[in-house]
Design a protein that fits this description.
two-stranded antiparallel ribbon, disordered N terminus, elongated, 3 domains, Fumarase C, Chain A, domain 2, two-stranded parallel sheet, about 475 residues, Fumarase C, Chain B, domain 1, binds arginine, mainly alpha
C-alpha cells in the first residue's frame, strides 16, 4: 500500500497526518449523496467514453472502466456495496471500488475531471430524473381534477370571498381553479428543467482542463441540451436547485390551500364533502372523530418545503466564485423537497378522485347565504335602474330576508316589490341558484356549460 492509500484519501500525497475522525464524519456526504450513484456512474461512463474518443484512454481501458462501473452498479443495487465514510462521498466511494476491481485503469477515470464538475453534473442529472417523475405525478393529479370537475359541473355550492358566502358557483368550477394553479406549477417545473439541462462536465475544478476534451460529446451522451458556457459558473451555482425548490414551494402553497378547503369542507359545520375512510384516521379518545389527516399533513409539509427554499437561498448567498464546500449542503434540502413533493402529489392524486360531494349540503349552504343578491342587482340594472340604486334596493331586500328568515328566492313578488316596483315575475328566473350560475356563461365563468368546455380544453392541453 502506498502512503496515500493508507491514509486512503485521494489527496493523501500532500498530508502528513490523517483526517481527524470527527472531521471525517463532519465533512462526509456519502450518508446522503449515495442517492445519486446511478447518475454518478452514468456520468463517469460518458466521461470515459469521451476520453477514449479523444485518445486519452485506450479502448481496453474504456472497456475495463465501463464493465467495472456496471459491476459496481450491480453491487450497489444488490445491496452488496460497503459505503465508507472515510471515502467521503459517493464519487470517491465508487471510484475506489472501481479501482479495487480493475486496478490501474480505474485510477485514470478522473483524468480531466474534478469532483466539482462531477457533482454539478450528477445533481443536475438526478434532479432532471426527479423532475420527470414529479411531472408525471402532477399530471395524474390534474387528470383526476378534470374528471371530478366534469362530474361536478352542475353541482352548486357557495362561492366565497372573505370566507363569507358571495355568489353561487359550481363545484366543478372551484376544482378547475385548483387545476389552473397546478397548470402553472407544471409549466414552472418545465421551465426549470429546460434551464438546468446543460452539461457542466468539463469545467473540471473551476477553470477547465488541459486535456483535449469534447464537452459537446459528453453533453449529448448524458442527454443535456448543450455544455454550459462558463466553467467558474458551472461548478459554483446551485440556482437550479433553488429554482426547483421555488417551484416546489409554490406548488406546496397551492396544495396547502386546497388542503385547507378540504379540511373545512369535511367538517360537520360545512359538510360539503366526504373523504373515504382510507384517507382519514380516528381519535384514540373521541370515538366520533374522523380526521382529515392527509390534507392536514400536506398543509403542514408546506412549511418544511418553504424552509428548504430559504436554506438554499441562504446557502448560496454571498458565496464567492467558484466551488465552495458550502455547496455540499445543497443536497439534503433538495432531496427532502423532492421526497415531500412526490408524497404530497401522490396523496392528492389518490385522494381527489375519491372525493364524494354532499350536493344537498352545498346547495343548502349557497341558498342560505343570499348568494343571488348580485343577480337581483344585475336584474334591476337590466331594467334601467342605476347600479348604485339597485345595490340599495337589494340591500334592503336582504335586510328584510334576515329579519323574516327568507332567502330572496323564497319571497313573494309582493314582498320584493316593497323595495322596487321595477321587479316583475321574471325575477325568479335569476334568483334561483341554477339561474345565477347558468347566467355566468363566458370563458372563465362558472356556468356548467363553461365548466364542461374548460375541462375539454384542459384535457387537450394536458395531452400535449
Ligand atoms: N461531496 C462534495 C459536494 O457535495 C463533492 C465535491 C467536493 N469537491 C471538493 N473540492 N471538495 O459538494
Amino acid at each position: 500500500m502506498s502512503d496515500s492509500e493508507q491514509k486512503n484519501q485521494s489527496w493523501g500525497g500532500r498530508f502528513t497526518e490523517p483526517t481527524d475522525a470527527f472531521v471525517e464524519r463532519f465533512t462526509a456526504s456519502v450518508g446522503f449523496d449515495y442517492r445519486f450513484y446511478n447518475q454518478d456512474i452514468n456520468g463517469s461512463i460518458a466521461h470515459a467514453t469521451m476520453l477514449a474518443k479523444v485518445g486519452v484512454l485506450s479502448d481496453q481501458e474504456l472497456t475495463a472502466i465501463t464493465d467495472g462501473l456496471e459491476a459496481v452498479r450491480a453491487d450497489i443495487e444488490a445491496g452488496n456495496f460497503q459505503w465508507s465514510v472515510s471515502l467521503e462521498d459517493v464519487h470517491m466511494n465508487i471510484e475506489a471500488a472501481l479501482t479495487e476491481r480493475i486496478g490501474i485503469a480505474g485510477k485514470k477515470l478522473h483524468t480531466g475531471r474534478s469532483r466539482n464538475d462531477q457533482v454539478a453534473t450528477d445533481i443536475r442529472l438526478y434532479l432532471r430524473d426527479q423532475i420527470d417523475l414529479i411531472a408525471k405525478e402532477l399530471a395524474r393529479l390534474q387528470t383526476g381534477l378534470l374528471d371530478l370537475a366534469e362530474r361536478e359541473a352542475d353541482t352548486i355550492m357557495p362561492g366565497f370571498t372573505h370566507l363569507q358566502s358571495a355568489q353561487p358557483v359550481t363545484f366543478g368550477h372551484h376544482l378547475l381553479a385548483w387545476f389552473e394553479m397546478l397548470k402553472r406549477d407544471a409549466s414552472r417545473l418545465q421551465d426549470c428543467r429546460t434551464r438546468m439541462n446543460q452539461s457542466p462536465l468539463g469545467a473540471a475544478a473551476l477553470a477547465g482542463t488541459t486535456y483535449p476534451i469534447d464537452r459537446a460529446m459528453t453533453a449529448e451522451l448524458l442527454g443535456f441540451d448543450k455544455p454550459t458556457e462558463n466553467s467558474l459558473d458551472s461548478v459554483s451555482d446551485r440556482d437550479f436547485a433553488i429554482e426547483f425548490t421555488a417551484f416546489a414551494s409554490i406548488l406546496m402553497t397551492h396544495l396547502s390551500r386546497a388542503s385547507e378547503e378540504l379540511i373545512l369542507w369535511t367538517s360537520a359545520q360545512f359538510g360539503f364533502i366526504d373523504l373515504p375512510d382510507r384517507f382519514c384516521t380516528g381519535s384514540s379518545i373521541m370515538p366520533q372523530k374522523k380526521n382529515p389527516d392527509v390534507p392536514e399533513l400536506v398543509r403542514g409539509k408546506t412549511g418544511r418545503v418553504n424552509g428548504h427554499l430559504v436554506s438554499l437561498l441562504t446557502l448560496m448567498k454571498s458565496q464567492p466564485l467558484a466551488y465552495n464546500k458550502d455547496n455540499q449542503e445543497d443536497k439534503e434540502p433538495l432531496f427532502d423537497t423532492v421526497d415531500t413533493v412526490m408524497d404530497c402529489l401522490r396523496a392528492f392524486a389518490d385522494m381527489i378522485p375519491a372525493i364524494q360531494a354532499r350536493k344537498e349540503n352545498m346547495y343548502e349552504s349557497a341558498r342560505r347565504g343570499f348568494s343571488t343578491a348580485t343577480d337581483l342587482a344585475d336584474y334591476l340594472v337590466r331594467k334601467g335602474t342605476p347600479f348604485r340604486d339597485a345595490h340599495e334596493v337589494v340591500g334592503k331586500s336582504v335586510a328584510y330576508g334576515i329579519k323574516t328568515g327568507k332567502d330572496l328566492s323564497e319571497m313573494t313578488l309582493e314582498e320584493l316589490q316593497q323595495f322596487s316596483n321595477t321587479i316583475e315575475q321574471d325575477v325568479f328566473d335569476v334568483l334561483t341558484l341554477e339561474g345565477s350560475v347558468a347566467a355566468r356563461n363566458h370563458i372563465g365563468g362558472t356556468a356548467p356549460d363553461q365548466v364542461r368546455a374548460a375541462v375539454q380544453r384542459a384535457r387537450a392541453e394536458l395531452k400535449n
